[in-house]
Fold this protein.
Amino acid sequence: MCTRGSNRAPARGPSASPLAGTMKRFTLAFATLAMSALAGCPVTQLNRLPESSPLPHPKPIPVLGDFRHAPSGYIFPAQVEAFQRVTILQYDTAGLDVSAGYNASLPECPIVLTIYVFPTPRMSFIGADPDVVRSLESGWLDHAYNAAKREILQAHADAVLKGEDARVQDGGPGKKAVYAIGNTESDLYVFVVHHSWFLEYRATYSGSCSERAHQVIDAFYKAWGGRAS
């Protein structure tokens, strides 16, 4: 059975994490794919997001309780497991491109975690072949992932790449990289989700408590509801 997802489309920015370099925005070029499906079920997605421009500086969003990023539907609670939210930052005029910074103040293993949500390129798929969509998303992912890796190296000349592999979230493609930076370790994840949004995660923790840090971070991911139903 074929299912059609209603998706939104396209932005992004810097972080509260020590890993944060200067985030590079993606050019929000609009295009429409109109074609007959050659295989499987056609993908229908209409871009209804407003136009937006990068802000000269990230703008803090003051919020006490849970923060819902209305354009994407992602929710960032004030607290998730051991993590307390410390920042919500907006990087563009329309508020499409945001980040949420969390700290886990564990005496034996402090952890900094930042989640970025920003749009994919402004694309509308009308009856598009899923294989074509997957190919486009693969290109978007490579671009975003490589840009994030460059940011880490620009911010930390001593960063050493320890490993990489492919990941999947919400059915969307993703990639993971693990870095050693001095006495710390850092995990980078980048995903394309719902054809419309990039999700980027950066977590930094002491290399001496790597196992404990991963347990705490995994608990966060499992508890974080993320996208609104």
Q: What stands out?
A: The chain has one domain: 31-223. The helical segments are 130-155, 210-223. Residues 1-30, 34-38 have pLDDT under 50 and may be disordered.
